[in-house]
Design brief:
The structure holds two protein chains of two kinds.
Chain A lengths: L3 E4 L2 E4 L5 E7 L5 E8 L3 E10 L2 E4 L6 E3 L9 E3 L8 E8 L9 E3 L3 E5 L1
Parallel strand pairs in A: 2-11
Antiparallel strand pairs in A: 1-3, 3-8, 4-5, 4-9, 5-6, 7-8, 9-10, 9-11
Chain B lengths: L2 E3 L4 E5 L4 E3 L2 E3 L4 E8 L5 E7 L5 E3 L5 E5 L4 E6 L8 E9 L7 E2 L3 E6 L1
Parallel strand pairs in B: 2-12
Antiparallel strand pairs in B: 1-4, 3-9, 5-6, 5-10, 7-8, 8-9, 10-11, 10-12
The chains are: A mainly beta, B mainly beta.
């Protein structure tokens, strides 16, 4: 069955370290998204991609970067981790062209703690 | 800019009673509207969506939502709540023009009491 996976599921790191969170989907979806979930804020969009080599900034993109070299993967990199980036991170993907907001399918999440 | 408001952080309902989780939105043009549910330590799961057509949308697990354009609302409803419906519910909106991604509300925690 097609799915979307995230790794690692849990990560503890130190302030200033570079961290990469992986997201892999086998739906063959064009669109992929990264969100962070924090109490009181709901889900906030970090970065998104509408296809290979396409990336766009979301609402809370500072301190994060993504690259899309193939359809299946959209890794999220924290260039220099900060305590404010302690959060639960969700990856999602959707079908459709030109960013049409079709149903998004979410991964299980990565809980990141920055000490 | 588009936005979503879920005015209640927490909704409590007795098992067997009807439930409503409220959502209002703001968007330029016509909206695409979604409801998602999140169970503990899980990702979000799609419940239902409104794109166009009938204002009453039926979704998974017996949930439905009514699109009200004049009140800019998209409230989630279920005729008879189950304890297993206890979860975090998110409303999301996007404009139906251009490449605008979804904007999510802050979520409403539903607690169904036996």
């Amino acid at each position: 069955d097609a799915e979307i996976t995230q790794s690692p599921r849990h990560k503890i790191t130190e302030t200033g370290r570079q961290v990469t969170l992986a997201c892999h989907q086998t739906w063959n979806h064009n669109n992929m998204f990264w969100y962070r979930q924090d109490l009181g804020h709901g889900l906030r969009l970090i970065h998104y991609s509408y296809g290979v080599h396409d990336t766009n900034k979301g609402e809370v993109s500072d301190g994060y970067s993504v690259s899309r070299s193939n359809t299946e993967d959209l890794p999220l990199t924290l260039e220099s981790a900060a305590s404010s980036q302690t959060s639960v991170y969700f990856c999602a993907s959707s079908t459709g062209t030109s960013g049409f907001p079709d149903t998004q399918y979410f991964g299980p999440g990565t809980r990141l703690t920055v000490l | 800019a588009q936005s979503v408001a879920q005015p209640e952080d927490q909704v409590n309902v007795a098992e067997g009673n009807p439930l409503t989780v409220k959502c209002t939105y703001s968007v330029s043009g016509n909206p695409y509207l979604f409801w998602y549910v999140q169970y503990p330590n899980r990702g979000l799961q799609f419940l239902l969506k409104y794109i166009t057509g009938d204002n009453l949308v039926k979704g998974s697990y017996g949930f439905e939502a009514e699109f009200n354009k004049s009140q800019t609302s998209f409230h989630l409803k279920k005729p008879s709540a189950l304890v297993s419906d206890s979860a975090l519910y998110f409303c999301a909106v996007s404009a139906n023009s251009g490449n605008t991604p979804l904007v999510f509300g802050k979520g409403t925690r539903l607690s169904v009491i036996a």
